[in-house]
Amino acid sequence: xxxxxxxxxxxxxxxxxxxxxxxxxxxxxxxxxxxxxxxxxxxxxxxxxxxxxxxxxxxxxxxxxxxxxxxxxxxxxxxxxxxxxxxxxxxxxxxxxxxxxxxxxxxxxxxxxxxxxxxxxxxxxxxxxxxxxxxxxxxxxxxxxxxxxxxxxxxxxxxxxxxxxxxxxxx
Length: 171
Description:
By secondary structure, the chain is mainly β. The protein is built from one helix and 13 strands; from the N terminus they run E-E-E-H-E-E-E-E-E-E-E-E-E-E.
């Protein structure tokens, strides 16, 4: 398998609507910086079932720094990003989270009328991972020329540092 890393660098504040990440045939690396939004769930009340409610969507803040550092947080952090695949090459991509000390990471995507969840984290057995690697990796799959929004919920007792979300085509 070849890894053509596609860099997902998550950034920081000011509210605005996120733009989709455009996957193009001539690119295999992307800086997602300002295309990702985050929400700190201070009341621990947001679930995947109510995340789409307008009052919750308004709570997302657009990132604008290259490496977000949330410090030690007791509250869950939600990330939101949208990918538009304009690529005629692979339909499957890796999403790699380069900080291996996060306790629980849940990645959600809507499939028809149902939420699909994938979960990794340092509190889970290594063999429960989709890809056996030192960092956390998700396989993202979507049809060509379609847009898909992902939600990621992160909870951890260690410092939140998202220094590298990386992705690459499977191939």
